Amino acid sequence: MVLYGSNMGEANIHDNTNLPIILAGGGFKHGQHIASNADSNTPLCNLFVSMLRRMGIEADAFGSSTGSIAGLNQTKSTSSP
User: Which of 12, 34, 52, 77 is the most exposed place for a label (fewest CB within 10 A)?
Assistant: First the structure.
């Protein structure tokens, strides 16, 4: 898995919500754009929970997470994670 992102959602006003994040590899379903509702943002830590679970770590929470990312469906892996 490769995670790449920024700590600024809107650099002109130093806003740290709606962060641009790219996730590649790891057996996830790629080629999609997942956007959260701007009024009730999904915590970035939910992505970390999804990544930990994909690595075989049974994590229910990480930091301020509220679960995992909905819509980040995993594809079938032909090898062990």
Answer: 12
List the structure tokens of 15: 């806003």
Per-residue pLDDT of 12-31, as tens digits, reads 998 888 888 899 988 888 88
Q: Which among 28, 8, 39 has a CA at the least distance from the CA of 70?
A: 28
Residue pair 43/63 in contact by the 8 Å Cβ criterion: yes
CB 48, CB 67: distance < 8 Å: no
Query: What are the CA-CA distances from residue 10 to residues 19, 23, 39, 46, 53 (Å)?
Result: 8, 20, 15, 21, 30
Q: What is the DSSP letter of 51?
A: H
pTM for this model (two decimals): 0.77
Name the 3-class secondary structure at 22.
Answer: strand
